[in-house]
Write a structure and sequence with these properties.
Elements (H helix, E strand, L loop, with lengths): L1 H14 L7 E2 L12 E8 L4 E7 L18 E8 L15 E8 L25 E9 L7 E3 L20 E2 L6 E3 L2 E6 L8 E2 L2 E7 L8 E9 L8 E2 L1 E2 L1
Parallel strand pairs: 2-15
Antiparallel strand pairs: 1-2, 2-3, 3-10, 4-5, 4-12, 5-6, 6-7, 6-8, 7-13, 9-10, 11-14, 12-13
């Protein structure tokens, strides 16, 4: 099923399928309420774009348990895959699925430019919810069929605020809002009206073995559309 969802996602990007402005997702009693999406939407004022999703339970109430090491470290994420080209935010053109993510991971900090908890140390904030742009690509070595694209810093294009890890990940410092059942974030990306998107809650894992991708999507909690077809559409406020 997960492989089918990945295939449908790439097919949706290729055909530009857009079926609705907002995505409504059925409640599933077997899913964790903190990751069970009920609806997702996105709006723009022409200059800024806001992505949001609503959960059954309290958004952000569950974080990974710390392992005390990088190898095997878990990441929980609220993610909006989009039809935007990665070039829009500074990655290589056509290099994968540009996705906006709100993540938490207590075993490492990948936002070295920002001090999220304002304790004077910008290198200890991974456990707090923070934002990323990532480029996702297919990889059968990952249990959910997707990974954050591997890159070579200095060779592949990366945004100016990227932490210079060997993956297509940017840490732009936009502050996510997790308020009750809502997870949302506003990004400085213009001209997004009619851009298609989906909403996903997922778990990722860090790997340090060379034969395995560095950051794999290992589990999908929920997909708003049910099939990763990116049926949502950014609308004007």
């Amino acid at each position: 099923m997960k492989r089918l969802l990945v295939a449908l996602l790439f097919a949706g990007l290729a055909t530009g399928v857009i079926a609705a402005h907002e995505i409504v997702s059925p409640i599933d009693a077997e899913k964790s309420p903190a990751f069970d999406i009920t609806k997702a939407g996105a709006t723009t004022d022409g200059r800024l774009t806001t992505f949001a999703m609503e959960m059954v339970g309290t958004a952000g109430s569950i974080k990974p348990k710390p392992l005390g090491q990088l190898a095997g470290a878990k990441v929980q994420a609220y993610v909006w895959p989009t039809s935007l080209d990665p070039q829009v935010v500074g990655f290589d053109k056509g290099s994968g699925i540009l996705s906006l993510a709100i993540t938490a991971h207590p075993d490492f900090d990948d936002t070295p430019l920002f001090d999220e908890d304002q304790d004077g140390d910008p290198a200890n904030d991974g456990a707090d919810w923070h934002s990323h742009w990532v480029v996702l690509v297919e990889d059968t070595a990952c249990s959910a069929g997707l990974k954050v694209r591997d890159v070579s810093p200095g060779v592949d294009l990366l945004p100016a605020t990227a932490p210079y890890l060997p993956i297509a990940l940017d840490s732009p410092g936009m502050s996510p809002i997790l308020d009750g059942r809502i997870a949302k974030i506003t990004v400085p990306v213009s001209a997004t009206e009619n851009v298609s998107f989906d909403a996903v809650t997922a778990e990722l894992q860090v790997n340090e073995k060379s034969e395995v991708p560095l950051l794999c999507v290992t589990g999908v909690h929920d997909v708003a559309s049910g099939d990763l077809s990116l049926p949502g559409r950014v609308v004007s406020e």
